[in-house]
Amino acid sequence: SAVISQKPSRDICQRGTSLTIQCQVDSQVTMMFWYRQQPGQSLTLIATANQGSEATYESGFVIDKFPISRPNLTFSTLTVSNMSPEDSSIYLCSAVPYNSYNEQFFGPGTRLTVL
Amino acid sequence: AQSVSQHNHHVILSEAASLELGCNYSYGGTVNLFWYVQYPGQHLQLLLKYFSGDPLVKGIKGFEAEFIKSKFSFNLRKPSVQWSDTAEYFCAVNDQEVSGGTSYGKLTFGQGTILTVHP
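ok -> structure tokens follow
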């Protein structure tokens, strides 16, 4: 299994600013992902965080808006840039540990409110 | 693109009632199927998964799900619910072809079903 922590757990931000969310896993993992859950909606995959290379973004998400880093096998960051109220969501990090046989574990999420 | 549909947004049951939550997906290729649960104030956690083999899979806390390929369905069942099963339940699908043949990653989630169990 894997224990995933995220910082911050919640934040209230002003329009036009940026926020960086950190995701830390307690063990080495193969894959890490970032999801968004908008109010009243399901989880939507933003991107796959690739270790040592650029993230792979899903349709509708771009690097300029959601830059992602993954410097090692246990840590990743997601930045929400130039925020608008439409970015208000819960952002979740997930990971697949090496010994999990493809089970994807999720972090507690970061609840972002943009005013 | 894959899409996942959960039939009910909110289900309300009394304790000991039987539960069935519907889940249908759109893509007909090789898929891996999951049910996740999110209890109030807690992380999303895996309830059960199907990769191959017996289409009837058993998960934690007495839950089971049946994969019916011809119906593109993966319904979640529990014969007798408890108050502690109150949570939101998400069906998710991973397309092996979309993911480059790997059997993990790129989950597409359904809208979620909120289950409320009254004591």
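DSSP finds no helices and eleven strands in chain A.
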